[in-house]
Amino acid sequence: MEPLSQMNVREVEEALFKDPSTRMLCACQKDPRQGVRQLAVRLIKLQQAQAVEEARIQQMLVEEKKLWQQGFLLLAGIDEAGRGPLAGPVVAAACILPVRFDLPGLNDSKMLTESKREKLYSQIQAQAIDYALGSAEPAEIDALNILQATKLAMKRAVEGLKVRPHYLMIDALTLPTVKFPQLPLIGGDRISATIAAASILAKVTRDRLMVELDTLYPDYAFCKNKGYGTSEHMQVLRRLGPCPLHRRSFAPVKQGKSAI
Length: 260
What we know:
Blueprint: H1 9-18, H2 22-30, H3 34-59, H4 62-69, E1 75-81, E2 90-96, H5 114-127, E3 130-136, H6 138-144, H7 146-159, E4 167-171, E5 182-185, H8 188-191, H9 193-214, H10 222-225, H11 231-240, H12 251-254
Helix pairs in contact: 1-3, 2-3, 5-9, 6-7
């Protein structure tokens, strides 16, 4: 590499961020040009932010590490999206991450913006050892109740895995009819990276599905409310009554008149 003094600021930036060695960083810090010194400050802040993020991710792997140390390397995180809405299915995901992955920003899907979820969704799909989705439809929710329908969706997600997991890590629930060792974790999507990954897969999948279903029943604005009981949704429900996607066992839907 040519001497720093013979490089312009843009060239220094490319070299520094391509190979941020201690030697290069120190040279930038001592450079007489303010623009080069600012590059060094920017790199240090970036490295500090990356260290903080890595520490956060490692904190979300505490439960995984306990199981890995016992020899359970294929951990399937399981979570759902859509227990609360008045319409649409409940969707579950099962996701097996490798021991080493690179998913900066990974978190409970509810704590992420839509754009961040979409980005992580693609990254999780690319890096996962295996993942699968399962759902339970409104009629099943009405017949079983939302808790049992959620468990059914989770069971279907596990059954969809091509790779047999060694252990299931599930957000708050256990699945008695699924014959795998299980660890239920309350608030699992916030404290477990594996469950957080599943939460993102489930949430993005369900949101996309509700956007598609909006074309069938545009009056209810499912593309915006995703089936949740927003004030706008409730107004339409009172005016038109429920459509076939509504969960008729849910109290706010029961109060709506039948759609013609």
